[in-house]
Amino acid sequence: MGTAHLTVHWALEGKQPGSSDEYGILACSRGPFSPAHFMDIRARYSTGTPENLPQVTIGWVGGGRQDRWLLLSIRQSSAETDGTGRAIAETRYFCVPYEQVTEHHLSYEALHAALEACEPVRDEPLAVSVEAPNIEDIAARVGLEAISAAALLLTDEPVCVVGGEALPWLERLRFLDTVFSLLPYGMRTRLSASTWTSSTAGRWWTSKARNECRLSFTKHAPEGVHSVRWGALTEVSSSRHDAHRYQNLLVDRCGQPTALIEWLAAGTEPMSFSPDGRARALARLSEFTARDDAATRAISADQFTMERLLNECADFLKSRQDGKLAEHLDRLGNMVSRQGGRFFTGEQRRYQEVIAERQLLWTWQDVDDDLLFQLHAVILKVGYGPKLSARNMDEILDGVGSPGRSLLLAMLRMPSDAVVRLTLACRLDDKAELRRAFDQHSAGDLVNVAAREPYDGRLIQEIVDELARRGSAEEGLDIAGALREHNYLSDAIKALHPASIENRTRVLRRLLVAAYGQNLEPMEFAEIVGLPPGGEPLLAAAILSHGAGAGETLLQTVVLSYLGNAGLDPTTFMKVKSALLEPKLGGPAPSDDPEAYEDGSGNLNAPEGAVSRILRKLRNPMSRGRSVRVSSRHGHLEEAAGLRRQDGSGGKDWLPYVLLAILGVAVVLFFVLGYELLKSL
């Protein structure tokens, strides 16, 4: 570890805002590189049109012994647009003297972190301080795909990584660093790579000239290029002797990557990818193998001893020889500590098979609780250490059937991530342990765990309760952001209450209160129920959280926003807005409008509240003693209680009969009253 002090030359590529110019070098530092040099660098490392920005490209410049430079370019979006209204992408090029980076074996991630924040002053070179990387962090990322890519680079042919499209750009840059760490450091004087390359970018995959890109992420590997599938080991053909041998040596030593990376990083003498350079790289790796043979033999001997001890522990469990069991567990623990958790490929998998066959993680009756906990703690280190993954946790829990408290506690005490820690604390049914696990993680961690499939109903409920508690403690902003990334846990809560929309609405309402408080602001409401919608329970919960006026907010912030982005011309949009928001004045709408709806009073396109009344009628078609049906021909509602509309009558053809009835009653009353008057006289 340490700090390197670098002198960096730079250039800025782009175009003038509002212009129709082509991309070019807008500025650069004075020194060995002119704008023409940087234009040449631009051509050499063109990777095509990126799908996403930022994009980082790595390369090299120069060839003489004292004239070698590492290149790092950062392409990102700017806030400016050109004459056609298209966003302008800016690319910054940085050239670092190779001799200045060798002392601390700087990584490209470290270079990027230091250079990305630099602001050039006029044409001055940059004076930059860069922290040396933590080798253990790089070693922890060594996987099958990195081993495959490093070995295939020794064929002197380009390598594409496919299946990594979903990885963030920073993770891709870290992967490039990991691959390069598995080669002698001096090969960086001839290495080029990019976090993304278009499959149709120039001739980079076939060229043997200067513009080749040796390693890149891409969606589809072009024909004739080595392809590495993300997450898998790609076998190198035995016909490629050097690369095949290199891969086998890396696989054999992947159990001790930190020491290996340190050894390769010390090989700073510049190397090419010529036959001589490849032979020198293979020799460097072979030297590490020979140097480490004694330690290898000791670890290999431990492997067989450890397997034997596992079987003997199982025998002592069955025969209830607690004293001998405790002694063997001490020996196993010491062996794991001596190895520092290092295991060869397939070694730990064999231990897991023995552990499952001999039921070493089961709950054994009549065994002292302390001894049982020691057993489980040591066995977990042997079979699943040093860090318990979620996949291994699921495998263990599925294998033992009903895990006991001792096993759950031992698993919980292992280093792990939020998923493992929270799942185990919930399974343990211990409020203190669950509280301790919650206190170790952010709201984002909790939401991520709740959203993990297959859904754990009990854990989801506990997390909802915790988020509700944190919301009252004014952590709502973090909760809102985390929920938004997972659609407010709508799917998880559906799994929690599959048969009850009411319960889902209730739970979602609790989450919204935790995130936003008792009452939603209009923009918060729009954020939650924005199109596409997140489901009926979420909409109902948002409306309840909003309170009075939710209908108007829904129209204003969601529907109009959606229509405003639909490409309607301004005149049409204003008409739509008026139709949605302005009350209807005057008489009834024309009855021949097939798009119209009829409210309870016979008025079409009813003003405010029409949507609510229509929904009410659809949900309760027998209201007010009349049935409502949907016309299959026109799509509008008609009342089917004998009150049919007739041409020009507006539904009032009964008026003459009412008038005749009134007239008849008046005549009868006239004669009755006249008769009574005559009698009195």
Describe this protein's structure:
By secondary structure, the chain is an alpha+beta fold. Residues 202-211, 294-301 and 587-652 have low confidence and may be disordered. The protein contains 28 helices and twelve strands. The chain has helices spanning 35-44, 98-102, 108-116, 135-139, 144-153, 169-181, 241-252, 257-265, 275-291, 293-319, 322-339, 347-357, 369-384, 390-400, 405-412, 418-428, 431-439, 443-450, 457-472, 476-485, 490-496, 501-516, 522-529, 536-546, 550-564, 570-581, 610-619, 655-680; strands spanning 3-14, 24-28, 55-61, 69-81, 87-97, 126-131, 159-162, 193-194, 215-217, 226-229, 628-630, 637-639.
Overall structural domain count: 4
What's the helix count? 28
End-to-end separation in angstroms reads 130 Å
Main sheet record: 10 strands, mixed
Gross morphology is flat
Mean pLDDT across the residues is 80
Structural class: alpha+beta
User: Mind telling me the C-alpha Rg?
Assistant: 37 Å
The oligomeric state of the chains shown is single chain
The beta-strand count equals 12
Q: Give the helix level as a range of percent.
A: 40-55%
The percent range for strand residues is 5-15%
Spans of at least 5 consecutive residues with low confidence: 202-211, 294-301, 587-652
Provide a brief overview of the structure.
By secondary structure, the chain is α+β, with helices and mostly antiparallel strands. The protein is 50% helix and 11% strand.
